[in-house]
């Protein structure tokens, strides 16, 4: 059974960089059949895809966040990470890491999720 | 970017059938994916692709598409189905990008 667990500071000051790590167990992040994504959800609002990293290390980001987002991979620890720079209060949200699958002719699907971690941007 | 539109709230009587819809141009090309989210919990995948239901998801959950509208149908809704439901698809301006609908809050009466 694949499990994902987010970790990182729950409070970040405005203009600083938000950093989170997702540790994956029960499966290798290096396997080629799945990708690894970050998704966030402000309180009381909907889901927003932040970005994805492929086992190759290639990345794709939400265009609205692209200039501030970096997702990276640490295969030795079976982890992937999120960095979001120049944060504001609008970046306050629950951040989820998730495993992503792909089917031809269909939308991507997120079949395993972490429990989520609340990150608050405040001075 | 591509938008996906969902009704904010839908209600259904216990044991009846309810359809939750998701509209967007990308759905003319790609089958939608559906998630269920209960308060304080991470979303759970309930249906994906043309006809795929993850292990452990009851067969009362099914998906379909017509034109630009994808639907998640719950046949014989149960009290435990009360939750928020989200769809996602690909962004029409970027194949590799993901967009989510705004979510539908389902109440089981």
**General form of chain B:** globular
| Contiguous uncertain segments of 5+ residues of chain A | none
- Count of DSSP E strands of chain A? 11
Radius of gyration of chain B: 13 Å
Class based on secondary structure composition and strand pairing of chain B = mainly beta
Radius of gyration of chain A: 14 Å
User: What is the number of helices of chain B?
Assistant: 0
Instruction: Name the assembly state.
Output: heterodimer
Give a short account of the largest sheet of chain B.
6 strands, mixed
Calculate the terminal CA-CA distance of chain A, rounded to whole Å: 39 Å
Ranges of chain B with pLDDT <50 over ≥5 residues? none
Q: Name the chain pair with the biggest interface and residue counts per chain.
A: A-B, 24 and 32 residues
Overall pLDDT of chain B: 95
The tally of helices of chain A reads 0
In total, how many beta strands of chain B?
9
Q: Give the biggest beta sheet of chain A.
A: 7 strands, mixed
User: What is the approximate shape of chain A?
Assistant: globular
β-strand amount of chain A: over 45%
Structural classification of chain A: mainly beta
Question: What can you see in these coordinates?
Answer:
With about 120 residues, chain A is an all-beta fold. Chain A is built from no helices and 11 strands. The model of chain A has no long low-confidence stretch (mean pLDDT about 95). Chain B has no helices and 9 strands. In chain B, the strands form 2 sheets. In chain B, strands 1, 3, 4, 7, 8 and 9 form a 6-stranded mixed sheet that branches. A 3-stranded antiparallel sheet of chain B has the order 2-6-5, with no helix packed on it. Chain B is globular and about 40 Å long. Chains A and B meet through β5 and β10 of A and β7 and β8 of B.
Key attributes of the depicted protein:
heterodimer; A: 123 residues; mainly beta; 7-stranded mixed beta sheet; 4-stranded antiparallel beta sheet; globular; B: 109 residues; 3-stranded antiparallel beta sheet; 9 strands; 0% helix
């Amino acid at each position: 059974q694949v499990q994902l667990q987010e970790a990182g500071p729950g409070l970040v000051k405005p203009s600083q960089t938000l950093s989170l790590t997702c540790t994956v167990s029960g499966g290798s992040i290096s396997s080629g059949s799945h990708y690894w994504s970050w998704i966030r959800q402000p309180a009381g609002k909907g889901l927003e895809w932040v970005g994805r990293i492929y086992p190759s290390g290639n990345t794709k980001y939400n265009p609205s966040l692209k200039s501030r987002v970096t997702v990276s991979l640490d295969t030795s620890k079976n982890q992937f990470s999120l960095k979001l720079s120049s944060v504001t209060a609008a970046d306050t949200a629950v951040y989820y890491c998730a495993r992503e699958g792909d089917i031809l002719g269909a939308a991507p699907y997120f079949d395993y999720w972490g429990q989520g971690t609340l990150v608050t941007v405040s001075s | 970017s591509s938008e996906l539109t969902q009704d904010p709230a839908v209600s259904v009587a216990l044991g009846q059938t309810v359809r939750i819809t998701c509209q967007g141009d990308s759905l003319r090309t790609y089958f939608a994916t559906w998630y269920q989210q209960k308060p304080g919990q991470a979303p759970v995948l309930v249906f994906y692709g043309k006809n795929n239901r993850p292990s452990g998801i009851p067969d009362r959950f099914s998906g379909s598409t017509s034109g630009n509208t994808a639907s998640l149908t719950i046949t014989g809704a149960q009290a435990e189905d009360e939750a928020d439901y989200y769809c996602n698809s690909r962004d029409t301006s970027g194949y590799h990008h993901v967009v989510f609908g705004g979510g539908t809050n389902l109440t089981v009466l």
